[in-house]
Amino acid sequence: MTTYYDDRSVRVTSAAIRVDGRTYPLADFTEVWHRRSARSWRVLGRRGALGVALVSPVVFAVIGIAVGLSLDTSLTVTIAIVGGSVLVGLAVGPLADLLFEHLDRSYARGSRTMELWVRWRGRPVRLLATDDALRFGQIYRALQRAVEQRQPVTPR
């Protein structure tokens, strides 16, 4: 028996798929498909907030530099304003790494709920529903490989 995917709640083997403790033999499947829900506006809003958090310190630094150079003040005050603005822009570096990581994870998870369906013993059964697009893709592809391996290959 070959294992194609295995995590805490889903295991796909060449004989069956186990989801949350319930086992479905692949021999009883006649069809496998997936569905996607509508996009989650909450997830998209979070991504937008992360983008604003990434850009806003740089925008404020540029505005500070422009204001510092346009004011008719002494050289010391201008250097202080421009220097402070540059420091604000540089402070973004460590924070940006953290924010980019969160943004990257949000794209890996996806913005939709994905469902895995099979026709099992003649009736449709939803095996899995998850918001994690990366995990769903791995499980779906593992199930496809397992089903493909069960079908006999006809020689050409």
From TrEMBL:
- Superkingdom of origin organism: Bacteria
The UniProt transmembrane annotation reads 49-71, 77-100
Question: Could you confirm whether the keyword Transmembrane helix appears in this record?
Answer: yes
Which UniProt key words apply to this protein? Membrane, Transmembrane, Transmembrane helix
Entry's InterPro entries? DUF6232 (IPR045629)
Q: What is this protein called?
A: Uncharacterized protein
List the source organism: Micromonospora echinofusca
